[in-house]
Every structure is written in structure tokens, then in C-alpha cells.
Amino acid sequence: MSTNLANLLYLIPIVSFILALRFLSNPAHARRGNQIGAVGMLVAVVVTWIRIGTTSWWAIAVGMLIGGAFGAVAARRVKMTAMPQMVALFNGVGGGAAALIALAEVHRILPESGAPKVDISLAIVLSALIGAISFSGSMVAFAKLQELIGGRPITYPGQQFVNAAILVIAAASGVALVSGVQDEWLLWALVGSALLFGVLFVLPIGGADMPVVISLLNAFTGLAVAASGFELENNVLIVAGMLVGASGTLLTMMMGRAMNRSIANVLFGAFGQVSEAAVAAASSDGGSVRSASAEDVAVMLAYAHKVVFVPGYGLAVAQAQHDVRQLADLLEAKGVEVTYAIHPVAGRMPGHMNVLLAEANVPYPQLKEMDEANPEFSRTDVAVIVGANDVVNPDARNNQAVRSTACRS
Amino acid sequence: MSHNTLLVFELTILVLAIFLGFEVISKVPTLLHTPLMSGTNAIHGIVVVGAMVVLGAPHKDTFDWIVGFLAVVLGSANVVGGFVVTDRMLEMFKKREPAAERPVRDSGQVEEALGSREIPPTSDSTT
């Protein structure tokens, strides 16, 4: 198959990926979109297979079987609460693949006769750097979320300095490679320091800030893949990688905005301190606290016209989604209007809470996002806050906010 | 096509893809942000195509081959896992599930509705 024909056929996956993202704008046909994306991916693989011809076809087949089987089994088995670490894991292996491609390419083309093409070596350096950071960072995020290592922020004196120093080593190796020094060990140094940086970059970040990190690492892998596309002169990699890079960046920015943090703040650490300060500010707002028994709550709920549930990750930790939904069903049977006000970063990845509630069969029209839910609080009789003390919005203060640990009542 | 022409062309589609990415994503509601992340995660699994090209290219030695093979394994785990996880998530988003208290009545209605579809339109008008 000629390169032109292959590039023409690559338009099918490109269009299907765009459609997959486009269809995600509405929950009613989002699943169809994902299936279109999967078909596009299949087309891309088949076209590539034909284009390569018979070289190493069995190795490709075996590799795909191993990877595919692992991916399918892991994705089938994972619980919905464990979804973020699964996404982090798949994200990491994608970044790792991009870094490996760079290693293999450099090994194959060096030493190159004549001056190496600057754009190709730049693409190799970028995909190795970003891919390796994404790989090790995602693995640490996975380990943290899976509780293989402590979820608490790990900090030590001079942390920023050490991180900066490692990044300088990686950048220096990269600059040397791009400027034409033909030494494979430079790339090893680059990948090694990038891997280390990824670990140290994610380690200080606490579990509650994971949505931002995973979103950022997702964008990183996309960028690494786009760089691989330049390296291999492959359009579909460039477009698909950059779509993901752009969307991940936008999503990260939206997360930052929802948490009242700048992207610079998110990127350059100090995660733990800021959230503590925010919590302290919120708790000093005043107002009286009245404790209520389960019976009081039941009475309040039964006589309410409109009840808003404000769920946080604590809900998922306690596996209380189904209990909340049953309570909502009981209330709806009494004619109470029930909605759920969901903070964008409730859970361990953006929008995680929506997935958890959907799993508990909560119909999605009841799931309201922050901007939509906040004005509604003035007309709300009771707000039931479940496992979400840290994300409670000040707007809820004027209502009879009930911290319900007894949601089974 | 000369190398520079190709590069300019590639940069053009790169920039267009950035704007397209922003445009398409800004229409996704926060409700679906987790499936969005998971879905884009599956899309960057396209890296498997690059891994196939590297493994399929004539290789210099065993090292080259091993690295390419590992890249194919990781890339295909990314693709398959990403799409399966996203599908599982999106499967759960439903407008209105029959409530647990009245499953019998609801499934009856569904069966009736399905049954009535098989009846020819003429008999439909009699009901």
C-alpha cells in the first residue's frame, strides 16, 4: 500500500475520533460515539498492518494479543470506584509506548550520516520526554489511588529545587540531541531523568487533587503521541494525539477553575498547602452548627418540596450511592423533587461522581453541574451533604445544610 | 513531497487539530467528563499504530526489536482497555431506569410496547 493511499484511509479513523468526541456532548448517544471511535481505531490498525506487509507480522500479532488481553481483562474487572486508577494505568502505558518508540527510532537511525533533521530529532526528544514523564507519573498516580503507596502528599525540604534540577538534566540532554550530538546515551539520560521527574512530580500531590493530575497526564500522553506522529511522519498520530492534548489541556484548565486554582499553581506544586488554606477559610465563615438525629433528618426530608443531594468522594468510599438512590426513590414517591448537585472535581477524576451515581441507576437528568445547581439552592428546602465536607459550596450555607452520615434512615 | 513541504503540512494539521480539540471538548457537559477523559485516553491509544510501524520496520538488532515489541504491547493495552472502560461507563448513563420497587409493572409495559410494534398498523388503530 502506498503512503498516499494509507494517508487517505487514515482519514477514516481521524473522522471517527472527532465524531467520538462530538457524540460525547449528549449522554443519550455518547456510547455510540465511543463505538464509532473503536471502529476507527480498528481501521487504523488494519491499514497500518497492510502497509507494513509481512515484516514481523507475527511479533505484532503476539504483542497485540498480550496487550489487548491485559487491557480487556483489567477493564472488565475494574470496579467503578477504581476507575480513576485504571484510566491512569492505561494513560501511563500509552505514554510509555510513545517513549519506547522514540528509543527505538534513535537506536535505528543513529549514527546518521550527514546532519540529522532538526524537526525529527526535536520530535523524538519531545515524545521521549513527555511520554516518560506521563508513564512514570501515571504509575505513581495509579499506585496512590490503588493505595499501594500512601495517598497523603509526600514533601521534603528542597523538593522544588530537586525537581527543577532533574528537569534541567532532561532538558540539557534534549538540547544536545537536537543540536546534533549523535549519542544514544543522551536519550537514555533524558528518558531516565524524565521518568524520575514524573515520579517526583506526582508524589507530593494528595489524593483529592488527583483529578487535575490525571487530566494533565492525559494531555501529556496526547502531546507525546502527536510528537511521535512527527517522528514517524504519520498524520493520524498527529491529529489524534493533538486532539487529546488539546482536550486534556482544556479539561485541566476547567478543573483548575472549578477548584479556584490557577494552572501555574497546579503545575508547580504546593497542592496540599492551598487546599488546606481554602478549607480553613471556609470553616471560619461562621454560622451555627446544630446536630440532628436521623429522625430529625427524616422529618425534614419528608416535608420538603425540593431536596438536593451534594455527594462527595466520601459517599463512594462508604459505598453509599445505592442507599442515597433508594432514599431519593422514597422521597420521589412522596412527591419530593430530588436533584444532585455535583462539583466538577468530586471524586478522584473529573466527573467521577456522575459515573458512580449513574452506576447506582440515578437518571442523568437529575445530575446537575455546579453552575446549574448553585442558583437552585435558594429554592431548596433541604441539602443533604454526603461525604463532601471539603467541596461544600458557600451557597449552601443559608440552607438547612444537613451533614448526613445516617443516610440509611 | 520534500521533507520541508511535508513538515509545513504536518504543522498545519497540528494547529487545526488543537483548535478542533478545544472546540469539540468545550461542548461536553461536566456530567460526561470522566467518560471524556477515558475516551480521549482510548484515542491516544493510536500510538499503537506508531509502535506497529517501528516493530514492522527493518530492525538493526535485538534491542530494537524488543523495544518495538514492548511498545506494541503497551499501545494495545491502552487501546483495548481505554475503549472497554469507556463503554462500560457510558453504558450506565440512562435517562430513567425502572425503579427497583416496581420492576414487574415496568417490564410488563416494555413487553407490551415491544409486542405492539409487531402488530400491523391496521390493528394498531383499533386500540
Q: What percent of residues of chain B are in strands? A: under 5%
What is the residue-averaged pLDDT of chain B?
A: 78
Helix-strand pattern of chain A:
HHHHHHHHHHHHHEHHEHEHEE
The helix/strand class of chain A is: mainly alpha
The helix tally of chain A amounts to 17
Which percent range describes the beta-strand content of chain A? Answer: 5-15%
Shape, per Cα inertia axes of chain A? globular
Q: SSE string of chain B, helix = H, strand = E?
A: HHHHHH
Coarse structural class of chain B: mainly alpha
Poorly predicted regions of chain A: 270-285, 393-409
Keywords, please?
heterodimer, A: 409 residues, mainly alpha, Rossmann fold, 5-stranded parallel β-sheet, disordered C terminus, B: 127 residues, 6 helices
Structure description:
The complex is a heterodimer of chains A (409) and B (127). Chain A is built from 17 helices and five strands. Chain A is mostly helical. Chain A has three domains: 77 residues; 203 residues, no CATH class; 115 residues, TPP-binding domain (Rossmann fold). In chain A, strands 3-2-1-4-5 form a five-stranded parallel sheet. In chain A, helix 16 links the parallel strand 2 and strand 3. In chain A, helix 5 runs antiparallel to helix 8 and helix 6 runs antiparallel to helix 7. Chain B has 127 residues and is mostly helical. Chain B has one domain. Chain B contains six helices and no strands. In chain B, helix 2 packs antiparallel against helix 4 and helix 3 packs antiparallel against helix 4. The longest helix of chain B has 30 residues. The interface between A and B is large, with 116 and 86 residues.
